[in-house]
């Protein structure tokens, strides 16, 4: 009787070495540096990266597997880092070999939906063509769905997206983004869409302390700094601005700093004379107190 042929045992794999070789850690570290807070989001992105790496290792030793679902939903208010995280997610997917190029294409309803019969399909396909091999980020995706308008062509764009997400999922990852309540309605309206999006990540609003940290990071990058009085004024600005409509987290912080820089420049020129490097760097209390957030009910 012949002896059974021994089944080869796959070699042990060094996870640390595989992680280092993938360079995924560099991308995740960059994300940590770029974005203040968002720990639940960063943790989820790391978990997805770990799953993808493990999937690659399983494939390398012949373990039966199917690719993890990659299409995603990012929910949260504007200015919470969704686009930045999508860019880094594209890098992770590229470095692990799940997409060919690793680029990000951002699109809205206007990029995908036409205004007359026969216009939507070519617009949507053109965007998809640019996104192939990378990640398509559909911002405010719920505007694609307008059930109250029978003549709206957003449904056609959704159907084309669904076909590509299913049939070319090895060459394109789609991330839908927007406010959480509206995105919940959007997914509920289309079971086919909901079934293809497995990764749902919610981006929380920043706390006051995190918004101040974001402001200080922005100032450091621009070679500006708060005076102590300006910092106190900015903290009050944040408290007031958050109570007003259309607050956009880090985006509102960026707008406040940009306007403060304009006021500083005007202040220095109106004063005239010489100016010191310290004065060029310093944003003062008045540079923020002149904001309409303090002087009017309307927000900047």
Strand content: 5-15%
Q: How would you spell out the order of helices and strands?
A: HHHEHEHHEHEHHEHEHHHEHH
Rg estimate, integer Å: 24 Å
Give the strand order of the largest sheet, numbering strands 1, 2, ... along the chain: 2-3-4-1-5
What shape does the CA trace take? globular
Average pLDDT value?
Answer: 88
What structural class do helix, strand and pairing data support?
Answer: alpha/beta
End-to-end span in angstroms? 87 Å
Give the low-confidence spans.
none
Number of strands: 7
Please outline the major beta sheet: 5 strands, parallel
DSSP helical segment count: 15
Q: Helicity, in percent?
A: 55-70%
How would you describe this protein?
With 300 residues, the chain is an alpha/beta fold. It is built from 15 helices and 7 strands. It has a 5-stranded parallel sheet, with helices on both faces. α7 links the parallel β3 and β4. α2 runs antiparallel to α3, α6 runs parallel beside α7 and α10 crosses α12. The protein is globular and about 70 Å long.
